[in-house]
């Protein structure tokens, strides 16, 4: 029977990083991946550009981590956003910092990240076995003893001194994220917090596909659950065939999805002109009248809104496309201003795991030791990456979680084995 110091299940961002950190500690490492290639999800992150991390300091960075940034703090300090950039520079990837402190490969190609990781893995003589799925974990006297691996050659048993599970969550299942790690966790009695799509599109009631492709910049959005404001965001919204996304849509989706899954009513109020008060907007419309007493509604809206939005807004106002506004009837002008400043969007559904960016929920954090990423009950079993109940906003935070927790798990597993060898 083959034997390795460390077996890693899942060759995504956290798995590849875990294999590198363990191998750099002198470990004999086997990296297993059930798909035909490693890093499939990395290839689609950041719209194919791979937003590696975010360079904000921890005090600000931590505000974008859920549900418990304190758990992540040790992993982050051990392998910070600065360390991630230094690491990739070291293995030949030049990086750039863009708007919002987001870091990308200078080439703009996510494939360069995967290539660099695999090149380092090859240099360190980590064995990578593709089309190979861990189907069972075998314990002996309370420790992981071996794993059963299913491949084209059938099922084989491989002995190991430690196992790191980095199989991902449930988002983008076509990349291989189908909840295998959650199955293993349940198998040994670990708690799993409810899993939901996060950083995903939300679909308004009676969504009008004519808005597809519309990008609204610098708008203010409030997320209501029932009558309570849960979140406020400023930035951009983008409409797609799935509803609304963009930075704002993705950021508020975590709380919105949770609320909808609990059966609550979710509403957005969007201020399309946050730089103007209602009075200033009324004055702006008044200036459009000039010396005229009457002016077409459509003409006013074209001055205030993107042209793609005008037909939709005419329907929203229920005044009719041929409506002529009059200075003598200010109530209609007030209605226009109120609708622009408080555009109400009722949300009825969201895009599921098939296309969400990340999974919220997963292995309960109190089941793991934050200093090592090991389980509290089995000291040679580690979990890292999206499989655990730790996720972040869009902007590089989720890949940082993957890299930091994967790095810590790899080092911790190596330290455990070295300590065991020294004492025996």
Q: What topology does this entry show?
A:
Elements: E1 3-9, H1 13-23, E2 29-32, E3 53-54, H2 58-61, E4 65-66, H3 69-78, H4 81-90, E5 95-98, E6 102-105, H5 110-123, E7 127-129, E8 133-140, E9 143-151, E10 154-165, H6 180-187, E11 192-198, E12 202-204, E13 215-225, E14 228-240, E15 243-245, H7 246-261, E16 266-271, H8 278-289, E17 294-296, H9 297-304, H10 310-317, E18 324-326, H11 330-341, E19 343-350, E20 358-363, E21 381-383, E22 391-392, H12 397-423
Parallel strand pairs: 1-2, 1-10, 2-7, 10-21
Antiparallel strand pairs: 3-6, 4-22, 5-6, 8-9, 9-10, 11-20, 12-19, 13-14, 13-16, 14-15, 16-19, 17-18
Helix pairs in contact: 1-5, 1-12, 3-12, 8-11, 9-10
Structure overview:
The chain is of the alpha+beta class and 424 residues long. It has two domains: 259 residues, FAD/NAD(P)-binding domain (3-Layer(bba) Sandwich); 151 residues, no CATH class. 33% of the residues lie in helices and 29% in strands. It has twelve helices and 22 strands. Strands 1, 2, 7, 8, 9, 10 and 21 form a seven-stranded mixed β-sheet that branches. A six-stranded antiparallel β-sheet has the order 12-19-16-13-14-15. Helix 3 crosses helix 12 and helix 8 packs across helix 11.
């Amino acid at each position: 029977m083959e034997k390795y110091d460390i077996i890693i299940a899942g060759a995504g961002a956290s798995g590849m990083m875990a294999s590198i950190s363990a191998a750099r500690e002198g470990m004999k490492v086997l990296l297993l991946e059930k798909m035909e290639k490693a890093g499939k999800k990395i290839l689609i992150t950041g719209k194919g550009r791979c937003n590696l991390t975010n360079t904000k300091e921890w005090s600000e960075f931590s505000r974008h981590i859920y549900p418990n940034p304190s758990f992540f703090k040790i992993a982050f300090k051990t392998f910070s956003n600065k360390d991630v950039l230094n690491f990739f520079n070291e293995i030949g990837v030049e990086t750039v910092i863009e708007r919002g402190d987001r870091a990308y490969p200078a080439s703009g190609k996510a494939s360069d990240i995967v290539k660099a990781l695999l090149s380092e893995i090859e240099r360190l003589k980590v064995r990578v076995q593709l089309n190979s799925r861990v189907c069972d974990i075998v314990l002996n006297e309370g420790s992981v003893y071996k794993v059963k691996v299913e491949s084209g050659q059938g099922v084989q048993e491989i002995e190991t001194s430690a196992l790191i599970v980095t199989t991902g969550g449930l988002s983008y299942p076509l990349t291989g994220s189908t909840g295998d790690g959650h199955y293993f966790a349940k198998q040994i009695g670990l708690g799993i917090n409810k899993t939901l799509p996060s950083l995903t599109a939300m679909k308004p009631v009676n969504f009008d596909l004519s808005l597809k492709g519309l990008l609204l910049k610098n708008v203010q959005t409030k997320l209501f659950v029932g009558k309570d404001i849960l979140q406020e965001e400023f930035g951009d919204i983008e409409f797609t065939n799935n509803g609304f996304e963009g930075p704002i849509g993705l950021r508020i989706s975590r709380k919105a999805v949770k609320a909808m899954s609990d059966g609550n009513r979710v509403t957005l109020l969007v201020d399309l002109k946050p730089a103007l008060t209602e009075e200033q907007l009324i004055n702006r419309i008044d200036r459009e009248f000039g010396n005229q007493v009457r002016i077409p509604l459509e003409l006013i809206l074209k001055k205030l809104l993107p042209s793609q939005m005008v037909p939709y807004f005419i329907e929203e106002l229920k005044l009719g496309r041929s409506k002529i506004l009059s200075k003598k009837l200010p109530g209609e002008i007030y209605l226009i201003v109120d609708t622009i400043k408080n555009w109400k969007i009722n949300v009825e559904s969201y895009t599921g795991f098939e296309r969400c960016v990340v999974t919220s929920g997963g292995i309960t954090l109190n089941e793991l030791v934050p200093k090592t990423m090991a389980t509290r009950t089995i000291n040679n079993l580690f979990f890292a990456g999206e499989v655990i109940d730790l996720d972040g906003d869009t902007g590089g935070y989720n890949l940082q979680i993957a890299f930091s927790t994967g790095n810590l798990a790899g080092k911790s597993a190596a330290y455990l084995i070295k300590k065991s060898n020294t004492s025996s």
